[in-house]
Amino acid sequence: MKIEQLHKLFLECNSVCTDTRKLKVNDMFFALKGENFNGNTYAEQALNNGAKYSIIDEEAFNTKEQTILVNNVLETLQELAAFHRTFLNIPIIALTGSNGKTTTKELINATLSQKYKTTATIGNLNNHIGVPLTLLSMTKNTEIGIVEMGANHQKEIEFLCSIAKPDYGYITNFGKAHLEGFGSVEGVIKGKTELYNFLIENKKTIFVNGNDAIQIEKSKQANTFSFGNDDKFNIQIVFIEAHPNVKVSYNNLTIESHLIGEYNFYNIAAAITIGNYFKVDDSAIKKAIENYIPNNNRSQVLTKGTNNIILDAYNANPTSMQAALLSFEKLNNSSKVAFLGDMFELGKDAELEHQNIVNLIKTLHFKAILIGENFNKTKNSSSKIGIFKTFDDFKSSFDFSKVENATLLIKGSRGMAMERILELI
């Protein structure tokens, strides 16, 4: 079946689905395969549960009129998404970066939705499956699409751009993330700037943080719209040491966010800039950012008992960990404790980067509890740092009754599930 024909059938459906547990009536089911499952085996069940069509790639499961046999289900999903994107012909904003992608995407969406009907990536569905699903969730009512793109090796962003064909792009930053796949920070820069390369080649627009030398250098040949100290949009941070929430000043407005840490300043600034570019009123921009409440373990501020908690445990890498610690240092609370979990996907640099974090903590003025096999391998002579090899070791040994009237930072890679600490406090 040609992709044009499949797209006509797709338009008959409410949405697409890849998981029968989340299937809704009149969905188009795509029988994807994974290491431990074969979606083809669920194709008939999907139809019985109300799917309008099931897309399969194994002849043995072509048992009903509503099953559609293709060569490769994943490739078909991607081709359909690319076709649908062209069919809609709406502005698409793509963003990637080492840190802050999802928060920035949420802020941009909150800002633009003050004026436009937007569709944005849900959660962090930002890979070779998530991007197509995001595009296929857009409808004729969508006025602007916002697509988050993640990557852990070269050519991924390039591939995602070939599907989403963005008109605008923003890179949050370049940091020490996914070093195992990218090989080095230079590899990270090369991989992330594949977004710039696409936009430059297609004469599209790049949003640039004018205070980031790498962004400036890599976007020299592009149509740019920038913000920063020396640019048209001069957005300043207003940081109060006694409180973690970030405030910014812009066009004689003060915007107080619910986001913690100076590292979120540029995420907010990008949303302000993009909102301004698309002519969202300043008052609406202020409303959008001030009403945005972070969730899902990202930059959340909580209270349990007598303790204030900064929960930033969705993920971590050396760059984001350092930024979080330096921001935590600036809070002038007398009693502070950082609970940090291992950082993953660092490959050969894992030992060095964990030691760097330990060395940094030694220069700061708060206690730290480090959890994980990588942190356990570090050299530490400081009495203010405690290290546990596993979370179970920490859970059985650490006495939370001694932590009172304190401010706590909780951060680590997703695999460490550091939010479990909340159950112990």
TrEMBL record:
<keyword id="KW-0131">Cell cycle</keyword>
<dbReference type="InterPro" id="IPR013221">
    <property type="entry name" value="Mur_ligase_cen"/>
</dbReference>
<keyword id="KW-0963">Cytoplasm</keyword>
<keyword id="KW-0573">Peptidoglycan synthesis</keyword>
<feature type="binding site">
    <location>
        <begin position="97"/>
        <end position="103"/>
    </location>
    <ligand>
        <name>ATP</name>
    </ligand>
</feature>
<keyword id="KW-0067">ATP-binding</keyword>
<comment type="similarity">
    <text>Belongs to the MurCDEF family. MurF subfamily.</text>
</comment>
<keyword id="KW-0547">Nucleotide-binding</keyword>
<feature type="domain" description="Mur ligase N-terminal catalytic">
    <location>
        <begin position="15"/>
        <end position="84"/>
    </location>
</feature>
<dbReference type="InterPro" id="IPR036565">
    <property type="entry name" value="Mur-like_cat_sf"/>
</dbReference>
<keyword id="KW-0132">Cell division</keyword>
<dbReference type="Pfam" id="PF02875">
    <property type="entry name" value="Mur_ligase_C"/>
</dbReference>
<dbReference type="InterPro" id="IPR004101">
    <property type="entry name" value="Mur_ligase_C"/>
</dbReference>
<keyword id="KW-0436">Ligase</keyword>
<protein>
    <recommendedName>
        <fullName>UDP-N-acetylmuramoyl-tripeptide--D-alanyl-D-alanine ligase</fullName>
        <ecNumber>6.3.2.10</ecNumber>
    </recommendedName>
</protein>
<comment type="function">
    <text>Involved in cell wall formation. Catalyzes the final step in the synthesis of UDP-N-acetylmuramoyl-pentapeptide, the precursor of murein.</text>
</comment>
<dbReference type="InterPro" id="IPR005863">
    <property type="entry name" value="UDP-N-AcMur_synth"/>
</dbReference>
<dbReference type="GO" id="GO:0047480">
    <property type="term" value="F:UDP-N-acetylmuramoyl-tripeptide-D-alanyl-D-alanine ligase activity"/>
</dbReference>
<dbReference type="InterPro" id="IPR036615">
    <property type="entry name" value="Mur_ligase_C_dom_sf"/>
</dbReference>
<dbReference type="Pfam" id="PF01225">
    <property type="entry name" value="Mur_ligase"/>
</dbReference>
<keyword id="KW-0133">Cell shape</keyword>
<comment type="pathway">
    <text>Cell wall biogenesis; peptidoglycan biosynthesis.</text>
</comment>
<dbReference type="InterPro" id="IPR051046">
    <property type="entry name" value="MurCDEF_CellWall_CoF430Synth"/>
</dbReference>
<dbReference type="InterPro" id="IPR035911">
    <property type="entry name" value="MurE/MurF_N"/>
</dbReference>
<dbReference type="InterPro" id="IPR000713">
    <property type="entry name" value="Mur_ligase_N"/>
</dbReference>
<keyword id="KW-0961">Cell wall biogenesis/degradation</keyword>
<feature type="domain" description="Mur ligase central">
    <location>
        <begin position="96"/>
        <end position="274"/>
    </location>
</feature>
<dbReference type="Pfam" id="PF08245">
    <property type="entry name" value="Mur_ligase_M"/>
</dbReference>
<feature type="domain" description="Mur ligase C-terminal">
    <location>
        <begin position="298"/>
        <end position="385"/>
    </location>
</feature>
